[in-house]
């Protein structure tokens, strides 16, 4: 086998190569054509330049934010915060393979749990413009004068179930794919930037721009004998992972979330909360990952968490009762919730790099103590919930015809709806036969 590098330019950009949500072109489409090669998913990178503006001057030129503007962006996601959704489909038939909605929220939940503070200071700072310090993020990225000369360069690794599967992705016509199409929808400007002091009056027209975009990756070409055998076979199978998104709101002390996952091989479920009023609001950080919050930005401590399958407790045959159920003055995050959250992303014993710590995963840090949630160190709050369904066989658990139920008992006593973003990690199979494909989930 021989490897080679490819670079794909967007198929739908304007003549100047600049894209932005503000200017009405929020969709990027990359077409990787059919070839007798396999795509190495973990090598796929989105490259380009990022520029932040506080608005447009009278002369029609974008204005760079200054320190007095108090304009911030998420220090835990960096440029990932501009990707609202990521989808993959076959190039020949446009059949959907994987779609991750609210991709920036998924990365806001996933990245801090799987990367360390040192990662944020080093390679993530260069590749994704992430800095685990809210003030440094503003000074180095948002207020950066490089915007005048084209912007801050980045090279994002696109994390997804498909791209992070172990098997290379077939691109040949004999598989029926006819190549792979990658589509990225950009996030609204109001969900990327936020104000430090709960007032965005100084940058009400803030926006971002992306330029010089390309998709780079590595492909591998099988040897002649292997290629001939694959092309001669009447049918082939390809197993891969996917991540699906579910959105719910909770607004009571006892919340019950029922979902039809529609997946036969569920490996794990993870997610995080954010007040609904924070979304698309430049006065608040829409990328926040917290525990449920009462009005006034006060944490509503989780007292009990139950995961059910077909109305039975599963895979945990008990309630996760937190210390806050007996004493709501305890500031330490519930250990069982944190452990199961990390375990849903990777086997807990294998996690050696994480930003989750007692300093940024707390339940009373700004509950009447005067500490603003925006001032947390090490990338901000890292709260999340989750559960792993299969860490041994890799086959997952069948949720195709039974409901998934999540019961949450919390101290959410005020009228303050909280958004719950749940992400389902599952294993799928693609079957190719006679030039057509079928995806079995």
Kindly describe this structure.
This protein is mainly beta and 441 residues long. The protein folds into two domains: 2-234, Adenovirus Type 2 Hexon, domain 4, CATH 2.70.9; 238-429, Adenovirus Type 2 Hexon, domain 4. The chain is 12% helix and 37% strand. The chain is globular, with a radius of gyration of 22 Å. It starts with a strand and ends with a strand. The mean pLDDT is 88.
Would you kindly provide a brief summary of this structure?
This protein is mainly beta and 441 residues long. The chain has helices at residues 103-114, 117-121, 123-127, 134-142, 224-232, 335-345, and strands spanning 2-8, 27-33, 38-53, 55-56, 62-63, 71-73, 83-90, 96-101, 152-157, 169-170, 179-186, 193-195, 207-221, 235-250, 254-259, 266-275, 293-294, 298-299, 302-309, 312-313, 320-321, 385-388, 404-410, 418-433, 436-440. Strands 1, 3, 9, 10 and 13 form a five-stranded antiparallel sheet that branches. Strands 14, 16, 22, 24 and 25 form a five-stranded antiparallel sheet that branches. Strands 15, 19, 20, 21 and 23 form a five-stranded antiparallel sheet that branches.
Keywords:
Adenovirus Type 2 Hexon, domain 4; 12% helix; five-stranded antiparallel β-sheet; 37% strand; globular; 6 helices; 25 strands
């Amino acid at each position: 086998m021989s490897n080679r590098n490819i670079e794909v330019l967007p198929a739908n950009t304007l003549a100047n190569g600049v894209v932005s949500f503000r200017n009405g072109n929020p969709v990027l489409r990359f077409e990787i054509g059919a070839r007798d090669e396999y795509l190495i998913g973990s090598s796929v990178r989105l490259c380009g330049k990022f520029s932040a503006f506080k608005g447009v001057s009278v002369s029609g030129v974008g204005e760079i934010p200054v320190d007095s503007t108090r304009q911030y962006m998420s220090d835990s996601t960096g440029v990932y915060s501009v990707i609202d959704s990521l989808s993959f489909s076959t190039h020949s038939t446009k059949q959907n393979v994987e779609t991750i909605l609210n991709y920036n929220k998924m990365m806001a939940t996933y990245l801090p749990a799987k990367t360390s503070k040192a990662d944020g200071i080093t390679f993530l700072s260069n590749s994704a413009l992430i800095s685990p310090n809210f003030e440094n993020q503003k000074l180095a990225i948002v207020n950066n004068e490089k915007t005048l000369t084209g912007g801050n360069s980045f090279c994002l690794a696109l994390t997804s179930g498909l791209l992070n599967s172990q098997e290379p992705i077939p691109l040949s016509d004999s598989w029926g794919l006819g190549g792979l199409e990658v589509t990225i929808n950009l996030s609204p400007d109001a969900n990327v930037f936020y104000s430090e002091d709960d007032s965005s009056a100084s940058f009400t027209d803030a926006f971002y721009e992306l330029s010089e975009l390309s998709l780079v990756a590595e492909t591998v070409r099988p040897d002649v004998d292997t290629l001939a055998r694959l092309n001669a076979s009447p049918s082939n199978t390809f197993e891969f992972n996917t991540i699906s998104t579910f959105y719910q709101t909770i607004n009571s002390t006892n919340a019950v979330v029922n979902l039809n996952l529609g997946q036969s091989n569920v490996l794990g479920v993870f997610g995080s909360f954010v007040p609904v009023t924070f979304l698309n609001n430049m006065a608040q950080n829409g990328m926040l990952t917290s525990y449920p919050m009462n009005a006034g930005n006060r944490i509503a401590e989780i007292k009990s968490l139950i995961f059910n399958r077909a109305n039975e407790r599963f895979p945990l045959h008990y309630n996760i009762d937190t210390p806050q159920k007996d004493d709501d003055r305890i500031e330490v995050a519930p250990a069982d919730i944190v452990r199961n959250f990390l375990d849903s992303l990777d086997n807990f014993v294998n996690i050696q790099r994480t930003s989750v710590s007692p300093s940024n995963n707390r339940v009373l840090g700004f509950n009447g103590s005067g500490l603003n949630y925006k001032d947390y160190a090490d990338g901000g709050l890292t709260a999340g919930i989750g559960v792993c369904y299969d860490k041994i066989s890799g086959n997952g658990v069948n949720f195709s015809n039974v409901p998934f139920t999540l019961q949450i008992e919390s101290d959410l006593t005020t009228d303050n709806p909280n958004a719950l973003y749940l992400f389902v990690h599952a294993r799928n199979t693609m079957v190719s036969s006679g030039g057509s494909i079928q995806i079995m989930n």
